[in-house]
């Protein structure tokens, strides 16, 4: 509810009556946090997987009235956590209207507001500032200056008002003073030059800043928070030791601990609810699981730089691309239902290769080949969970006896089912995962999953060039240099075909 006090006199009465709270920002956030904990409200909506790890540490930092830093690799929701702190601020804050630093009408700190209070007294107008306007965020870059962060003298302001440069009224406020009575966040702190980090010492320890050339210390009311990659993991810069010493709490973030948590995050963030094309979209759970498992395997792969990390943005972008490939197939074939298949994950390799940095071995192999290996390994892992006790000897025997199957990755569901119907036991195995009453597009996706699962476990071979060979012959194929392209692992996109043999 919007407060009704419009003058300083009315505001004083409301504060004395207890209708409007008046307290420092860290106490405000602490008290609102306590109320939320007691009422059982969610503290950080949209943050998944941190309930037992990061969130308790953030709560402890706030209860301790600490400035704090979130340390973690890319894509670990650090910025989202910091922005969610605004939910712990009061809905409205009384300020002196027109003041650049959101001065408290009862205790102004800037010269102009003090002069107004002296001249107008209890008739001083009061404005109200919303909680979102009390959050100031700065992405640290090497070109940031002290003037940007703290402030500087303003000769133009002095000239216009006919003031001496030494006059306090000629100060130009930087981002930190403009965040007064709110939250100030710095992202990627190590990228901030060391001499600029020194400029933050006072605000963290003494709670004030001194603007260049003025013998005036402004006692700011701030919660200061930071985010950064772990210092040892970046060559761009570092957090200087005296600054680290002044930060109250250092909190480590992490990637999702389980595939289910990761699926929740991707379901929440990915653009999967699409409309306007008159297409119904159905995403099988095993497709979602394989997408997430690709990221999990990438974080463990020796060919990928673990220090850089593999962002949760990988499965988000990957799922969006997988859905788009299914849409493209449905539009081209005239189907009304788009169901992603495992084949679509191979077609979405461009959404993978830009999301990780390779070690030397990975550079030799190539990003595309590394991505295909990740997909193949992810399919094998997920397949074991969906078909742990499946007896697929009929399917593998059909191929071992000389059977071969040509499957175009752009085939409509009906055609794919028609071609695979000759493989004994294949459709039955697919229905065990898709359900007995599955529609044609869902069953076609499930059939593709079984074939890809068998290929991932090397029980059948696959070639994009139509070379029909048994799995045993494929395994006996002469090895090639690690930087050459394996035809069995070519991307299955466009008009290329895949063959199971």
Structure description:
The chain folds into 2 domains: 8-252, P-loop containing nucleotide triphosphate hydrolases (Rossmann fold), CATH 3.40.50; 259-500, no CATH class. It is elongated. A hairpin with a 6-residue loop joins strand 8 (208-210) and strand 9. The protein has helices spanning 8-16, 25-39, 54-63, 78-83, 111-120, 146-149, 155-160, 175-178, 194-198, 201-205, 241-246, 259-269, 285-300, 313-333, 342-347, 360-365, 367-386, 393-400, 413-420, 426-434, 440-456, 471-475; strands spanning 68-71, 92-95, 127-130, 135-139, 151-153, 171-173, 182-187, 208-210, 217-219, 222-228, 249-252, 280-281, 337-338, 405-408, 462-463, 497-500. It has 22 helices and 16 strands. The strands form 6 sheets. A 5-stranded parallel β-sheet has the order 4-7-10-1-11. The model is unreliable at 465-470 and 477-496 (pLDDT under 50).
Topology overview:
Blueprint: H1 8-16, H2 25-39, H3 54-63, E1 68-71, H4 78-83, E2 92-95, H5 111-120, E3 127-130, E4 135-139, H6 146-149, E5 151-153, H7 155-160, E6 171-173, H8 175-178, E7 182-187, H9 194-198, H10 201-205, E8 208-210, E9 217-219, E10 222-228, H11 241-246, E11 249-252, H12 259-269, E12 280-281, H13 285-300, H14 313-333, E13 337-338, H15 342-347, H16 360-365, H17 367-386, H18 393-400, E14 405-408, H19 413-420, H20 426-434, H21 440-456, E15 462-463, H22 471-475, E16 497-500
Parallel strand pairs: 1-10, 1-11, 4-7, 7-10, 12-13
Antiparallel strand pairs: 2-3, 5-6, 8-9, 14-16, 15-16
Helix pairs in contact: 12-13, 12-14, 13-14, 13-17, 17-21, 19-21, 20-21
């Amino acid at each position: 509810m919007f407060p009704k006090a419009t003058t300083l006199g009315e505001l004083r009465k409301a504060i004395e009556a207890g209708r409007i709270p008046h307290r420092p920002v860290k106490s405000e956030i602490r008290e609102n946090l306590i109320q939320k904990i007691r009422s059982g409200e969610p503290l950080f909506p949209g943050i998944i997987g941190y309930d037992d790890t990061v969130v308790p540490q953030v709560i402890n930092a706030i209860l301790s009235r600490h400035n704090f830093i979130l340390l973690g690799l890319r894509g670990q929701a650090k910025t989202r956590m910091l922005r969610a702190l605004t939910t712990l601020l009061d809905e409205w804050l009384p300020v002196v209207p027109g003041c650049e630093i959101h001065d408290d009408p009862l205790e102004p700190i800037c010269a102009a507001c003090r002069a107004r209070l002296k001249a107008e007294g209890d008739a001083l107008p009061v404005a109200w500032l919303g909680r979102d306007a009390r959050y100031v965020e700065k992405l640290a870059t090497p070109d940031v200056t002290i003037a940007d962060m703290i402030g500087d003298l303003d000769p133009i302001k002095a000239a216009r008002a006919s003031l001496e440069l030494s006059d306090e009224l000629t100060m130009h406020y930087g981002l930190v003073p403009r965040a007064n009575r709110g939250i100030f966040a710095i992202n990627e702190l190590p990228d901030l030059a060391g001499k600029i980090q020194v400029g933050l010492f006072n605000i963290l320890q003494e709670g004030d800043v001194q603007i260049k050339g003025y013998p005036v210390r402004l006692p700011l009311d701030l919660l200061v928070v930071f985010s950064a990659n772990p210092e040892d993991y970046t060559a761009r810069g570092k957090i200087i030791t005296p600054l680290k010493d002044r930060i109250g709490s250092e909190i480590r973030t992490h990637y999702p601990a389980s595939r289910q948590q990761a699926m929740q995050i991707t379901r929440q963030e990915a653009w999967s609810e699409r409309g306007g094309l008159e297409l119904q979209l159905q995403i099988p759970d095993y497709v979602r699981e394989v997408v997430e498992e690709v990221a999990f395997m990438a974080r463990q792969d020796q060919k990928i730089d673990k220090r850089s990390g593999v962002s949760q943005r990988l499965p988000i972008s990957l799922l969006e691309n997988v859905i788009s490939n299914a849409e493209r197939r449905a539009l081209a074939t005239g189907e009304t239902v788009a169901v992603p298949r495992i084949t679509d994950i191979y077609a979405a390799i461009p959404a993978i290769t830009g999301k990780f940095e390779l070690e030397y071995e990975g550079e030799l192999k190539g990003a595309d080949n590394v991505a295909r290996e990740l997909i193949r390994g992810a399919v094998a892992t997920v397949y074991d969970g969906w078909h742990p006790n499946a007896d697929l000897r009929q399917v593998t025997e059909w191929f071992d006896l000389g059977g071969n199957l040509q499957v175009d990755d752009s085939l409509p569901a009906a055609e794919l089912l028609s071609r695979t119907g000759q493989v004994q036991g294949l459709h039955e195995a697919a229905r065990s995962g898709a359900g007995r009453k599955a529609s044609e597009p869902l069953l076609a996706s499930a059939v593709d999953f079984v074939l890809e699962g068998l290929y991932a476990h090397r029980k059948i071979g696959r070639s994009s060039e139509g070379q029909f060979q048994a799995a045993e012959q494929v395994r006996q194929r002469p090895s090639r240099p690690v930087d050459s392209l394996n035809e069995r692992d070519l991307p299955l996109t466009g008009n290329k075909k895949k063959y199971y043999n």
